Amino acid sequence: MVAVAGASGFIGQALGPNLSESFAPISLSRSLREPGGGYRSCRQVDLFSLSGATEALRGARFAVYLVHSMMPAARLVQGHFEDLDVLCADNFARAAAEVGIEHIVYVGGLLPSGNALSEHLRSRQEMERALGATGIPVTTLRCGLVVGARGSSYQLLARLVRRLPLMVCPSWTSSRMQPVALGDVVAAITQVTDDVPDKSRVFDLGAADAVSYRELMAATARSFGLTRRFISVPVLSPGLSRLWVTLTTGAPKALVAPLIQSLRHDMLARPDAKLPTERPTTSLVEMLREAADEQGDVTIVPRAFRRATRPKGPSTVCSVQRMTTPPGRDIRWVADEYFRWLARKMRGLIHITRSEDGQEIQFVFRLTGQPLLGLRRLAHRSGPDREVMLVTEGLLARTTERGRLEFRNVLGDRTLIAALHDFVPRLPWWIYRVTQGTFHRWVMVRFGAHLRRLSRDETPKTETS
Fold this sequence. Notes:
Layout: E1 2-5, H1 10-19, E2 25-29, E3 41-44, H2 50-57, E4 62-65, E5 76-78, H3 81-99, E6 103-109, H4 119-131, E7 138-143, E8 146-147, H5 152-163, E9 166-169, E10 176-177, E11 180-181, H6 182-192, E12 201-205, E13 211-212, H7 213-223, E14 229-232, H8 238-249, H9 253-262, H10 284-297, E15 317-324, H11 331-345, E16 350-354, E17 360-365, E18 371-377, E19 386-392, E20 404-410, E21 415-423, H12 429-434, H13 436-456
Parallel strand pairs: 1-2, 1-4, 2-3, 4-6, 5-15, 6-7, 7-12, 8-11, 9-14
Antiparallel strand pairs: 10-13, 15-21, 16-17, 17-18, 18-19, 19-20, 20-21
Helix pairs in contact: 1-6, 2-3, 3-4, 5-7, 8-9
């Protein structure tokens, strides 16, 4: 069996029929769906939950990871997309190792030569590392802009050329790139899925010929039977470019901003990293024609363009911050240091108590002696590189089965993620947003700065409370 994370997305929907010819594909999706589109079964999964990812992958031999810029189903999300992405990929890799997955296929993006990567491209590269951190061989397919009618990047292009007869082209439109047809990506995934390598490998996917973004826009216009004029300008800041694209296409800032930041680089497939295949590469003209024909048949609003809907159920919080574990320290030390540091900072306001075995922690309001919230260490879910604590009842929190605070190392190094998941506040929501929610984020940022100071010392010393 092949488990496909992100099966309900643009590439995942096209992949199902191909995989079904040789495998029994399983669709992994945040929402429970009826099987279809080539998928034999559908499993609901929250990739922000390690236990959920483990159960979703159970019974599969191979896995395909098509997830990017995943947002948790929470009313309030605090965190950068890079950190949210690496957390999901880390959960997936840990879960895959737990259930015995033999091979992971990851679809990423082409990377420019050199080390000057945008946040968007750096995140793609980090996910390659995160997926391979447990030792499972990972085949990464780095793709150029994937051309297909339902793709968000293609929709940006299509809306620009359809809505603007005259386009002002900033300097980034001269950057060169190699788009790739959706069918070629699907064929490549199918080809490599059961070809288990001895170690991780990377292939680049792109059309035979490179074009500039301006040439791509002109070719897209021609595929619709349109003629467009382009005026080059020597400078146009990324901020103005983002505003121009957002206003013209209706795409959200969160989608456009990281893409614009990446366009200043040439995004070319390396000749020595191309996937050996007998399938002829689809030409630019052909892939644009196919996408234009499909778009003409249906009204398509990509999921990435849609406004996020408020999840059903209680209002929850997800807060994720990236930190650094000091040299010579492990995750258990980080968790203990957090409570020691917080007790010092909140002296006079909050008293932190611990049970004799250290498994139960309470935050007590000094003026009244009332518990604000509690934490219970989950020993069966904790380990050398992960500490997990369940949030328990208090004046500021409700007890749930999923509310938890965790610290974990990711990427196989000292990169540390601190995350509060599925937290349900007791305060009215609008009061929580401007008080407790803001305070929690400030505390975690300050604790991260504390760990950085310790990391700069050759032999960090820990003060005790």
